[in-house]
Amino acid sequence: MCVKAFGFLSFGHYAAGGSYGAREALQQAVEIGVGADEIGVNGAYFRVHHFAEQAASPIALLSAIAARTSGIEVGTGVIDMRYENPLHLAEEVAALDLLSDQRIAVGISRGSPEPALRGWEAFGYSDPSDAKAANMAREKFDRFLAAVRGHELAPADPAQFGPGVSLRVEPHSVGLDRRIWWGAGSAATAEWAAEKGVNMMSSTLLTEATGAAFADLQREQIERYRTAWRAAGHDWAPRVSVSRSIFPITSDIDDLYFGRRGGGQGDQIGIIDDTRSTFGKTYAGEPDELIEALRGDAAVEAADTVLLTIPSQLGVDYNLHILESFAEHVAPALGWRPNSEGPVQPDPIDGRPGA
User: Fold this and answer.
1) Smallest Cα–Cα separation from 88: which of 170, 203, 2, 5?
2) What is the CATH number of the domain that holds 330?
3) Using an 8 Å Cβ cutoff, are 301 and 4 in contact?
4) What is the pTM of this model?
5) I need a surface site. Which of 14, 92, 137, 230 has the fewest CB within 10 A?
6) What is the pLDDT along the chain (355 residues), one digit of tens a residue?
7) Which residues contact 130 (CB under 8 A, 6 or more apart)?
8) Which positions ≥6 away from 149 have C-beta within 8 Å?
């Protein structure tokens, strides 16, 4: 397989009350999305966190970008399902899908640790049986998927519809479930996503630390996901994305920010959510060096989409410079196809057509 698409992943950091606040962060996010669309970048994705000075509820932001663009996907990496009403989210995502001409790639997951202690309870949701609320998140995701797929979930008022009638959530966007992704942090959750029949976003970290390189762990995760997809018998081929910190050094300012790292930072092992985890390395170097390094990245080679984590605090111009440098000097050598060539089509799995 090859890297058919790349997008940017923004964490949307800002400083409340400072010179760079939420208003500036949101407006700049839109401008980066618009500029990226003009470059031919395939996706604009945003991390979602709550009770933090960074991007939160994403639908308004994604809608603003979709309204000013024509080719780029708009999406998330990822929405924390613990904080969501599944049917309300299904309504919003369907409306966004219709308004954007089906240009969405909405990633959802249990979510990562948040600043608030059990913050989902402040949003009105609780799971007394599970301190991390992972079970609740999956149950809500099941209900969300049922709504997205047009299942009739509510009994109709018999005075209006007669007896025995049930209603689906509206609006309904046909095929929307093929544009939903699950953010998987382990091989087991990747297999679960395959069974559910949704695309997979492989996280910026894996909740596994076996001593193997991050890219090798991620490659195993992708392979197990595709094996589980085949076993489930779905009649279409899914997409798979991986996230990377990649900085082409093409100018003096690039060298100032990233060149002195000597080729980037290696994989790291740490503890997140009380679990020993592996974090991916940073790639920084001349374009030819990056091409060689990324060709040797086992997970990048296996995925069809790469998400570049961007330093959004450095402003619109510099972030567009990063994306343009990658698009001009690196991505074509990896098999990239700009958004002007149409929606990304994954490679078939056992003869199954793409999404």
Assistant:
1) 170
2) 3.20.20.30
3) no
4) 0.92
5) 230
6) 578 999 999 999 898 666 689 999 999 999 999 999 999 999 999 999 999 999 898 999 999 999 999 999 999 999 999 999 999 999 999 999 999 999 999 999 998 778 999 999 999 999 988 888 999 999 999 999 999 999 999 999 999 999 999 999 999 999 999 999 999 988 899 999 999 999 999 976 555 555 678 888 899 999 999 999 999 999 999 999 999 999 999 999 999 999 855 444 554 434 344 443 344 678 999 999 999 999 999 999 999 999 999 999 999 999 999 999 999 999 999 999 999 999 998 878 875 666 5
7) 136
8) 176, 177
Residue 332 lies in a domain: yes
Would residue 46 count as lying in a domain?
yes
Q: Length of the chain in residues, anyone?
A: 355
Domain that holds residue 234: 5-341
Residue 348 lies in a domain: no
- Number of domains, the chain: 1
